[in-house]
Amino acid sequence: MYRFLVVIEKTNGNYSAYSPDLQGCVATGKTTQEVEQNMYEAIDMHVRGLVEDNLPVPESHTRAEYVVFK
């Protein structure tokens, strides 16, 4: 089982997503649900490709937190 942080950003007219631990693995979508599904599929394809090519799957080192300022 693998676990990767995914960052979703609102852009002009759609959403984009990337994983800091999977360089080059990105996705877009018109809604947050669509970009989440597209990113899930992109990560699945990316990791399967690494495994098929006998390359190491990167460990997830990235974490995120919201910081609240008053």
Instruction: Fill in the CATH topology.
Output: Double Stranded RNA Binding Domain
Gross geometry: flat
Percent of residues in beta strands: 15-25%
Largest sheet: 3 strands, antiparallel
**Count of DSSP strands:** 3
Number of domains: 1
- Look at the helices and sheets and give the structural class: alpha+beta
How much is the radius of gyration in Å?
Answer: 14 Å
The helix/strand series, from N terminus to C terminus, equals EEEH
Task: Assign the CATH architecture.
Answer: 2-Layer Sandwich
The N- and C-terminal alpha carbons lie at a distance of 38 Å
Trace the largest sheet across and list its strands: 1-2-3
Mean pLDDT: 96
Describe this entry's structure for a reader:
- The protein has 70 residues and is of the alpha+beta class.
- It has one domain (1-70): 2-Layer Sandwich (Double Stranded RNA Binding Domain).
- Helix content is 30%, strand content 17%.
- Strands 1-2-3 form a three-stranded antiparallel beta sheet, covered by helices on one side.
- The radius of gyration is 14 Å and the shape is flat.
- The chain starts with 6 loop residues before the first strand and ends in an 18-residue tail after the last helix.
